[in-house]
Amino acid sequence: MIMQRLLCLVFPGERRSRTAVIGEATLLLFLIAWSWSYFCIPVVALGFDPGWMHNVHLVIHEAGHAITAMVTDSRVPVVFMGSGFQVMFPLFIAGAFYFVNHDAYGAALGLWWTGHSTLDVAPYIGDSRALQLPLLTGGTGAEVEGHDWEFLLGHWNALEHDTEIAAWVALAGRTLMIVVFLWAISVLIFEGFMLRGEAEPASPENG
Fold first, then answer.
1. Can you tell me the distance from the alpha carbon of 23 to that of 105, in angstroms, rounded to the nearest whole number?
2. How many domains does the structure of the chain reveal?
3. 101 φ, ψ to 5°?
4. What's the pLDDT tens digit per position in 104-124?
5. Contact 78, 68 (CB under 8 A)
6. What is the pTM of this model?
């Protein structure tokens, strides 16, 4: 009983129906299969072939610049919050699912998005000296005099470490995605099967 209560604190949620478990497990298997290529592709190659999710991240990235520019004129936070908001936005969603909706599975999906978004930032960081990635404005960083991370790493005197930092950021994103898959599987097992020992609602007796 004590162990089950502790697990309920870790996996806040209600018992899932068999249909819900099957549907959510199917979605999880799809995410695992679809994400596989992101664990194999080199960071540099990912920058030139980021996949369709990059367009989703890009909208949030640009919103981060615009929102931050409304509250400060300082260039460093405005530039940083493009990538910063890109990662923080799905993290906020994961937190809302977990702490507000008490939905651990929904939180896991939000954290997967956070990991994928983090991985999406890595090629941008690694391109800080090469400046070869195509940008939203057209052309490459070399043609438009740099980009966000070329400015940021230059400002922080870390430009020569761009590829090393990118590798660590990519590792963080991929690690989070793997942890999320294990977390989501645990959620489905706990809420779909371990909670099935609870009593079913009593059915009305026939008169």
1. 12
2. 1
3. -85, -10
4. 899 999 999 999 999 999 999
5. yes
6. 0.85
